[in-house]
Design a protein that fits this description.
Structural class: mainly alpha
CATH architecture of the largest domain: Orthogonal Bundle
CATH superfamily of the largest domain: RNA polymerase sigma factor, region 2, helix turn helix motif
Strand content: under 5%
Helix content: over 70%
CATH topology of the largest domain: Rna Polymerase Sigma Factor, Chain: A
Radius of gyration: 18 Å
CATH class of the largest domain: Mainly Alpha
Largest sheet: none
Number of helices: 8
């Protein structure tokens, strides 16, 4: 899962091999969903937005100037799409102010309670640290790939990841103390 591997897959997509984009999807979908979840707080919305992000990426792949930076480019699209989603949500709230909120009646898929708690704690991290955690742990733990996605040097990435781990540990300990 290196940037050169992404470049080869992108070249294959340009050559007409659409299944190559499926491989890019498989590589980056967990990371894109995590970025979208950070912004929405809803698994269903995050999944919908992630699909939209990949559709936009596919349609605009010809605009990608540096194929070895596909991951960073894709995360940029995800962030932009989430901003648009928030604006749309605010507009619809203003438009339908005073009406019953039906969102509270929609059931989300049930997941292990520990995972939900961890995801909520991760959302409390600063954005750069959240992205480091997601990029490292959701992309099979490859620091080299994660640092490329984030556009950081190796030492810079490890500093951000270490700060994120420390902050996560503090937040989890605070949560546990509150329970006791």
């Amino acid at each position: 899962m290196t940037a050169s591997g992404d470049k080869v897959l992108i070249e294959a997509v340009f050559a007409g091999e659409k299944e190559a984009f499926g491989e890019l999807y498989d590589r980056y979908a967990p990371l894109v969903r995590a970025v979208c979840y950070d912004k929405t707080g809803s698994l269903a919305d995050a999944q919908d937005l992630a699909q939209d992000v990949f559709l936009r990426a596919y349609e605009r792949l010809g605009r990608l100037r540096e194929p070895d930076r596909f991951g960073r480019w894709l995360i940029g699209i995800a962030r932009l799409r989430c901003k648009e989603w928030r604006r749309q949500k605010l507009r619809s709230r203003e438009k339908f102010a005073g009406q019953t909120n039906t969102d509270s009646y929609i059931c989300e898929p049930s997941h292990d309670g520990q995972i939900e708690k961890l995801l909520k704690v991760i959302t409390k991290l600063p954005e750069k640290e959240r992205l480091a955690v997601h990029a490292f742990y959701l992309r099979s733990g490859s620091a080299e790939d994660a640092r490329r996605v984030m556009g950081l040097s190796r030492s810079g990435f490890y500093r951000v990841l270490e700060r994120a781990r420390g902050r996560l540990k503090q937040l989890i300990n605070q949560k546990q103390e509150q329970v006791l």
